[in-house]
């Protein structure tokens, strides 16, 4: 099987995309591109775009397609994107999927595989509401399933400050999940129809899911 480097990770909020994208980035040495992370960072910087996005994100709504497409365009034009990338959280609508094709064509790139991490709704709330991350490096943890090995100290970078996302609360998660089922899930048949879609069961441990992803991407 051909080595897959241009990868899209899809799946519901809290399904493990961010965690798995980081592991892939480490292993394959290709950039992890997360529109959610870019938007949150713009929100922290307090730019006009960032504040507009933050208001939508905090309520569990999607940010307008145009804004995310523009962010993605900038990333795909960077030379690093030529050797591969892991897209996490983009595309989230059919329009974004179509625009992604156009952006890739313009850069003479194409997707190698789209991995759907499948997680039933019942798992989501529990996973999302307990998660937190290292302020310094973004490594993800969970208060029940994945605590740092040393209390209060990030395994990855030794950082001692952690944060929770404002949108990781029950009401917002339910709204994000509803948006996922209504607007993002219809993107899956789009990729299935061109033979790019591979599905993995995302209910196991981080290591188990990592191994399943390794198998389906063939690298
Ligand atoms: P994530 O970090 O991927 O869970 O994204 C957090 C939030 O950012 C989402 O709930 C959306 O509000 C927003 N967001 C991230 N990526 C996109 C996108 N591609 N399209 C629309 N909204 C997005």
Describe the model.
This protein is α/β, with parallel strands linked by helices and 219 residues long. The chain has two domains: 5-120 and 170-217, P-loop containing nucleotide triphosphate hydrolases (Rossmann fold, 3-Layer(aba) Sandwich); 131-167, no CATH class. Helices cover 46% and strands 15% of the residues. The protein is built from nine helices and eight strands. The mean pLDDT is 94. Adenosine monophosphate binds at residues 13, 34-36, 39, 56-57, 61-63, 68, 89-90, 92, 96, 176.
In short:
The protein has about 220 residues and is an alpha/beta fold.
Overall 3D shape: globular
* pLDDT averaged over residues: 94
Quote the beta fraction. 5-15%
Radius of gyration: 17 Å
State the CATH superfamily name of the largest domain: P-loop containing nucleotide triphosphate hydrolases
Spatial separation of the terminal alpha carbons? 9 Å
Small molecules bound: adenosine monophosphate
The SS-based structural class is: alpha/beta
Helix content: 40-55%
Q: Low-confidence runs (pLDDT<50, min 5 residues)?
A: none
- Give the total of beta strands: 8
Strand order of the largest sheet: 2-3-1-4-8
In the CATH hierarchy, the third-tier topology of the largest domain is known as: Rossmann fold
């Amino acid at each position: 099987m051909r080595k897959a480097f241009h990868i899209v990770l899809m799946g519901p909020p809290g399904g493990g995309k961010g965690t798995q994208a980081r592991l892939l980035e480490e292993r394959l040495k290709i950039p992890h591109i997360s529109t959610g992370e870019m938007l949150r960072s713009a929100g922290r910087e307090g730019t006009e775009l960032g504040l507009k996005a933050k208001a939508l994100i905090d309520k569990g709504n999607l940010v307008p397609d145009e804004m995310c497409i523009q962010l993605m365009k900038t990333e795909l034009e960077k030379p690093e994107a030529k050797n591969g990338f892991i897209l996490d959280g983009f595309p989230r609508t059919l329009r974004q999927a179509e625009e992604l094709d156009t952006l890739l064509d313009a850069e003479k790139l194409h997707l190698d595989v789209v991995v759907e991490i499948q997680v039933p709704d019942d798992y989501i709330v529990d996973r999302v509401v307990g998660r937190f991350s290292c302020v310094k490096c973004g490594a993800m943890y969970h208060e029940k399933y994945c605590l740092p090995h040393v209390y209060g100290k990030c395994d990855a970078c030794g950082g001692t400050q952690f944060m929770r996302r404002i949108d990781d609360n029950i009401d917002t998660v339910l709204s994000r999940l509803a948006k996922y089922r209504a607007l993002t899930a219809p993107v899956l048949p789009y990729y299935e129809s061109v033979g790019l879609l591979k599905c993995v069961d995302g209910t196991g441990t981080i290591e188990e899911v990592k191994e399943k992803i390794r198998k389906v991407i063939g690298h």
